[in-house]
Amino acid sequence: MLAITCWSCKTEYPSLPYNDIESFSIQDADGKTLSASIVDDQIILYWPPLVNQPESITPTIKVSDLATITPASGTAIQLQSDKPITYTVRAQDGSSKNYTLVFQYNQPLVQAKMNLLEGKYYLSHPKNEDLVVRGENILPDENQTKGYLVDKDGKETLLSFSQPPTSFIAQFNTPGDLKPGIYHIKLISGRYTVLTDAFEILLPQIYSLITLDSYTVKKGENLVMPIKSTEIYELFFKTDFDHFIAIDNLNNSYKITNATFDVTKKIVTLPIPTTIQGNQIKTLKLMDKNGQILTEGDQYITLN
Question: 0.90 exceeded by the pTM?
């Protein structure tokens, strides 16, 4: 009788209705604990700046008493996915609540500009120089940082890295079919996209083509100069070259149409007009048939 009386007096408690996430934390790349913020139905996890985002995380999760969570605490979660990551907390009484993981990459603003003198880049041979972008807060990860060469018409060409990026430099190989013109580089690094100022790609400088020196020649005679690189002449100038423009020390210009390049002898012959008024040629320009400058440079040709 006593046992029956005690059993009948036992209190029945209702199942708990709590289905909250109380804490959510992971370990970063250095083993430090990162705690997420729980805001309404979101788990907001802030990743440190300039640290590569992991492919997966293994969170430690604490939930309400007697509640369960799916996926369970200690389960690895893949982050590299387009699908949202959802956690479901089920209370003791069977009620449930869903939480969405929001992974925030705490990235500072990216800055970038071309490392060029006066915004000019000269083609060369046998290999063009790298296209170098200097900046700040560039993500040092080839998967998260990309560079595109953008021409005047907006056409984009994906660039390959010549060496891995750092936080301050992104260095790219030049495309093999690079042509003269006005360009930008679009740098995408993490959440930011930056467009550099416009820069100009030019044919090789005249110093790369012709051996320029201090020459002395009589007006009306031929000036013979060595070709420094026949490869540069063949690649960049042979098709389009039409004539020279010479500028004397009085700033008078003279069109010289009968100059010749002899690749076999590796010389260029420049007839000096008798009409030159100055006593020195200070600038030489290589021109195409449309009167556009192919390349130019200062020169010191003394005239007798």
Answer: no
